[in-house]
Design a protein that fits this description.
alpha/beta, TATA-Binding Protein, 454 residues, Alpha-D-Glucose-1,6-Bisphosphate, Chain A, domain 3, globular
Length: 454
């Protein structure tokens, strides 16, 4: 088990666990590994979300890169997919996003992206960890004549805004009407300025919620992890659609005109159905994860679409897409990868694609979403220490209980238990036909794990 990197980079409490000293070393080690795969002096982009600790982490990261001899371009506050897009466009050696995504403000994290705008593979993260553990960090110090140079280029976010606008401008403007009205919840996060500019330039009528970040209110009772306020706003203000982004802007959930939540599985169904109609669904396949609803599998079968499922993590979805030339994939949580546009989950792009389909077809979003019938799911997170997250597999009573419930569910249900890659949690998901029953079963497993491992 890796010591530093989880499924989405390094993520810890800022300044106590994710200390400036650790960040400095991670930067040096990362620059060393990345330079092995480049013939030039590395140039690394850095973007961040709105967390209070963002500038602290960025300063330490910048110092580490410069000390090694890499150059840095600081992008300021920008959505994660904006960093990915600019890395590829500017042909930078790599990039780093400083963000803890949907977590509370006290967390922060480090995500490395390759020169192709994709999260670096596990193998490179393991190389970085090897250097961190080698005790040779101090040796990775540039000669005084080779120290790197840092540059502030917050203006580059306009390139990302232009990309989003031009990708959808023609179709949206052609079908847009004055009655169409959207509510945007930007989670006091990285999309708070970009989303407003993009929707304004496209001429879409909108109201924007939770766009006053103060460093500590990111994701606080708002955004894709706390969607209740947006539901209420959409219904009360008769919006056609509600959109919720997470703290770093790489995921998107939606609310229909009746206040019902639209998750990533439903979005995947709507998008893959649309792409198939346009003969643009590459290899007739959609990629999802093992956490995706059984309803997505049934939708795919009924619509003659292949579905491939990976372990949890958008990086693994992307790996499957690249390996077999698929162009759409994602997660139930709202990470949607549209590879024809950007090689990472992109919340704003996802919302624009959804709006484009609604306007083009002249349908409400609830009508669009009727293509998929979801199975009830019950999900519970059990807090355990990181060193105990894998022990549930070794406990006989836990295994027997899981096996008993699995047999009862049969073909119309399942259980997925997995350690979180970003938090000290074990995530339990039970899926079946009766909501009350699966909630009881999920709680039985959760209580057993809690009693055995807490």
């Amino acid at each position: 088990m890796r010591k530093y990197f989880g499924t989405d980079g390094i993520r810890r409490i800022a300044n106590t666990e994710l200390t400036p000293e650790l960040v400095y070393k991670v930067a040096k080690a990362g620059a060393c590994v990345l330079s092995k795969h480049s013939d030039e002096v590395p140039t690394i982009l850095i973007g961040r979300d709105t967390r209070l600790s963002g500038t602290l982490i960025e300063s330490a990261m910048t110092a580490g890169f410069l000390s090694y001899g890499a150059n840095v371009i600081s992008l300021g506050v920008i959505p994660t997919p904006g960093v990915a897009y600019l890395t590829k466009k500017l042909k930078a050696t790599a990039s780093v996003v400083i963000s803890a995504s949907h977590n509370t403000y006290d967390f922060n994290g480090i995500k490395y992206f390759s020169n192709k705008g994709m999260k670096i593979p596990d193998e490179l993260e393991e190389e970085i960890e090897e250097i961190l553990e080698s005790g040779k960090i101090d040796d990775l110090t540039a000669h005084p004549s080779k120290i790197g140079v840092a540059e502030n280029r917050q203006d580059l976010v306009e390139e990302y805004i232009y990309f989003l606008r031009k990708s959808f401008e023609e179709n949206i403007e052609k079908n847009l009407n004055n009655d169409f009205y959207v509510a945007l919840d930007v989670a006091n996060g990285a999309t708070y300025e970009v989303a407003e500019k993009v929707f304004t330039k496209l001429g879409i009528r909108f109201s924007i919620l939770n766009n006053s970040p103060n460093g500590m209110n990111i994701n606080e009772n708002c955004g894709s992890t706390h969607i209740e306020g947006l539901k209420k706003y959409v219904v009360e203000n008769k919006c056609n659609l509600g959109i919720a982004y997470d703290g770093d802007g790489d995921r998107c959930l939606a609310i229909d005109e009746n206040g019902n939540e639209i998750d990533g599985d439903t979005i995947l169904a709507v998008f893959s159905n649309y792409l198939k109609e346009k003969n643009k669904l590459s290899n007739n396949t959609v990629v999802a994860t093992i956490m995706s609803n059984l309803g997505l599998n049934k939708f795919a079968k009924e619509n003659d679409i292949e579905i491939k499922q990976t372990k949890v993590g958008d990086r693994y979805v992307l790996e499957e897409m690249l390996k077999n030339s698929y162009n759409i994939g994602g997660e139930q949580s709202g990470h949607i990868i549209l590879l024809d546009y950007n090689p990472t989950g992109d919340g704003i792009l996802t919302s624009l694609m959804l709006i484009q389909i609604m306007l083009e077809k002249g349908l409400t979003v609830s009508e669009l979403c009727s293509v998929i019938k979801k199975y009830p799911q019950a999900q519970i997170n059990v807090k355990v220490s990181n060193d105990k997250k894998m022990l549930y597999k070794e406990d006989k009573k836990i295994s027997e209980q899981i096996e008993k419930i699995t047999k009862k569910l049969g073909e119309n249900g399942r259980i997925v238990i997995r350690p979180s890659g970003t938090e000290p949690l074990i995530r339990i998901m039970v899926e079946g036909q009766n909501q009350d029953e699966i909630e009881t079963e999920a709680k039985q497993i959760a209580d057993l794990i809690k009693n055995k491992l807490y």
